Structure formats: structure tokens, C-alpha cells
Amino acid sequence: METTTTPLLPSNESPSSSLAAVPEEEEDYLPAASQTFKDFIKNVFWRETVKLWKIAGPIALSLIYQNGTNILTSIFVGHLGNLQLAAVSVSLSVIITFCFGFLLGMGSALETLCGQAFGAGQVHMLGIYLQRSCFILLVTCVIRCPIYIFAAPLLKVLGQDAELAALAGKFTLLAIPNLFSWAIYFPTQKFLQAQRKVGVITWIAIVALILHAFWLWLFIYEFDWGITGAAVAFDLTGWLIALAQAAYVMGWCKEGWRGFSWSAFKDIWSFVTLSLASAVMLCLEIWYMMSIVVLTGHLDNAVIAVGSLTICLNINGLELMLFLGINAAISVRVSNELGLGHPEAAKYSVYVTVFQFLVIGLICMSAVLVAKDYFAYIFTSSKVMQVATSKLAFILAITMVLNSVQPVI
Predict the structure, then answer these.
(1) From its phi and psi, is residue 380 left (phi > 0), alpha (psi between -120 and 50) or beta?
(2) pTM of the model
(3) 8-state DSSP, 264
(4) What's the DSSP call for residue 222?
(5) Signal peptide span per the entry (predicted)?
(6) What is the Cα–Cα distance from 399 to 409, expressed in whole angstroms?
(7) Label partner for 380 (CA 20 to 30 A): which of 100, 315, 343, 390?
């Protein structure tokens, strides 16, 4: 790993040159063996919990609201009919998730580098990393674009129902503008997260989700555009979030953003290598759900099977976004502490996070089991779809626990 991370962080400034940028205690934690259990809870567990959730809370909320665009899209389309719900769900869960997972992973490299630079006081490097990441993700979007263009025949090759694949392909083709918004959305999000400016991310996501619900109602029901209206709303919301975050970065982050620079095009390959490594690790977590949807499409009565499964995946996605938010926060915490030379603090941050992930997973499992006969009502009016979804609730509940610890590890 030395060849991917170290060269990207210049050494011409001492970590102590700008430590004021990191508003944390400068002392590392004492080893656990030298503390009583009570002192450990007070001085380590509680302090780490507060630090973690100050960052993780807004990030997780923003990701949940971001994922809420997918869920709201499924809800509005689901009341048009079972075929429309299944088609849009396949598009969102297979084609769009395939590219989303890869681009999110590519953007996660920026999370590590910006966190280390911020922790080491080299705040001026954040803008360089941001531009470099935007360029790499833009090229990646161009490479991924044919997957969107040929979504319908690709889904047919994967064994999906012909009518379902055609409708899903139509929605995916119209969602191409949303794909390119991620080239700005992910880097600007990681840039702000590294500096703990996460409140603005949350507020942008909240406003965008409210507008998304309005646009879905307007385009689908008032204009009677059907899934075309859903795709238009999806594109508008994606670009609203991306441009709002970019405007905040360029207008209110003067220390980290110092304008466009040719330095962004240096060390491109090292950055790409780190980005690809991050993408592979994260995609293994996200893509398995995509493969399950594809396999479900081979069952009898594929529309009901795919629709009920994707309703469960939407619920699971809310928990996953929470965990990804906490995962982003722990990445920032560990990077900052390592940049400050605090290995004990970095280690205990991970321990505390793993414990809290497991507790959250158990709570989510209990909630699913209690509401197993009711949560499908939100997505569909079809009794057949509601019953099919209820039958999957136990498996969904177990999945909520199994997914709880893995993201942070």
C-alpha cells in the first residue's frame, strides 16, 4: 500500500504546520490496559462515540436522503402498476447500481487522501485531489455510458423478461444525465466530509429530496409522463445535489479550494490505482444485491418476484446507507488521527464503530420483523405483491444483521 498512498501526499509541510485546521484533542489515548473499565467507557468509548456521530450523523442522513430518491421513485412508479415497479426497480437495482457502486468506490479514494491531508494540516491539497477525482470519475462515466445505452438488450441477455427489460431499458437510457452528475457529486461530498463540513451535505440532500417528491408527482401524475417523468425527476435531483455541493465548495471553502490547477493532472495513474482498489472493495458489498435481482428475474412470474425483492432491497438500502455514512465517518476519523500521529485513537475508533454497527443491525432486524406485513403498502397497492414481500421479511431481517459489521471491516 505504500506505493499508492504515500506519494500522493506531499511532504513539503510538517504535520504541525496547520494543526489548527483539525479541531480535535491533540493527545492520543492511553492503552486500554492502563485504564479501568469505567475510565475506558468515559475517556475512550463515550468520546469516540461523540466524535463519530458528529461526523457520521449528517453523512448518514445525507446518504439516506440520497437513497431516498431511489425509494421515492419506486414508490411513485409502483402505484402505476406491477410491471412499472419491476422495470424501474431492475433499472435502479441492476444497471444504475452497477455504475453507482463503482463510482462510489472510485470516489472513496478521495476520502482517504483528503482525510490524511486535512489531518496533516495540508488543507491546500484538498482542492487538487478534488479536481483530480472529478476528472477520473468523468472519464469513468464516459466508459460506463454504453451500459446505460444498451441496457435493454443487456438485461435480455441476462435472462430478464422481454417486456420488463424493454421498459427498464427505456428508464435507464433516460437516466444517463444522472450518471454524469456523480462525477461531481462524489468528489465534492468526500471533499466536504474530510473537513467535517457535513451539515451542508445534509441540508442539500433534504431540500433535494423534497423537490424530488414534488417533481415525481408533477411529471408522473400531473403531466402523465409515466416512467419518463420519473427519469426526468431522477436526473434533475441528481444534478441539483451535485451543483449545489460544487457551488458551496467553490464559494465557501476558500482554504481547501484555491481555484483550478494543472497540478490536478499530476500523479494521475497513482490516483487511479488507489481509486480502483477502493472501488473493488466497495463494489463487492453493493453488487451482490444486483446479482440477486438478476437471478430473481429467471423465476416464474418474474414481475412479482422482482418487485417484491426490490421492495425488500429498498428497505435494506436504508440501513446500508446508514452504514456507509458511518463507514465514511470512520474513514475520516482514522485518517485524521493517523495524520496527527495518534495510532491508539485510530484503533479505538474502529472498535467503537464495530460495536455500534452490531447494535444498529439488531435494532433494524427487530423493526423489520415487527412491520413485516405492512411496509409493502408504501410501495404498491397490489395485494399479491404485498403478500410476496411479507414472505421475504424474515430473510430481510437476517440480512440486516449480517450486513451490520462488514462495511467497517
Answers:
(1) beta
(2) 0.79
(3) G
(4) I
(5) none
(6) 17
(7) 100
